[in-house]
Amino acid sequence: MYANNRQLHAACGLYYLSEAVEEHTVVAGRVIRLLSWMVAILHILLLVFDGFPLLRTLYSLATLGVVSTNMFQFPNILLSSPNFLLGSMTIGNHFAWFSYFGTHPATMLQVATFFSICVWLVPFAYFTSLSAGDNTLPTFDADAQTGQTRGRVGLFKSLFNAMAGRSATSVPASGLPNGLNFRKDF
Do 117 and 160 have their domain in common? Predict the structure, then answer.
């Protein structure tokens, strides 16, 4: 099925990353935000110190900004949302930098490193997190009647609340079996 072990290792690595994002969506969101800021700062530093072209750098920053708008819906990113579809600017960004490095001398390692970090790192992070929203279920929100809003309740918390016979919107700190304190122990 796989031509060699490198493809198998890449597939296993991608699977592991997507599983890690599914299990730790809050941490993954923070990491993606941090990566976005780091890549933006790196673009600015390359513009200032290495003389990278202004228009391509601005296009890359605009692409990064458009792709980062998916964070407003994270981890529930929809493939049909306008934010995700506008992320196809990444392909144009790839070709813009590809044409730049075609006319400016650089080693293959420098080009591969630039593309890996500055062009594809953040879009790839969103790609690996597409399945993270599958583990959150919509629940009834009693506060919606009063005008207050709350976030979605995760799968584990919904199942725990259902087994404990509690509403999905809140879990009291006491009253759990065997003296467990939900906020403290989980």
Answer: no
Same domain membership, residue 34 and residue 105: yes
Range of the domain at 146: 138-185
What is the count of structural domains for the chain? 2
| 9, 58: one domain | yes
DSSP the chain: --SSHHHHHHHHHHHHHHHHHHH-HHHHHHHHHHHHHHHHHHHHHHHHHH---HHHHHHHHHHHHHHHGGGGGTT---TTSHHHHHTTHHHHHHHHHHHHHHHS---HHHHHHHIIIIISHHHHHHHHTGGGGGGEE----GGGGTT----PEEHHHHHHHHHHT--TT---SS--GGG--HHHH-
> Where is pLDDT greater, at 154 or 64?
64
Same-domain status, 110 and 169: no
pLDDT, one tens digit per residue, over 22-47 is 777 788 888 889 999 999 999 999 99
Cβ contact 131:14 at 8 Å: no
pLDDT single digits (tens) 153-162: 444 455 455 5
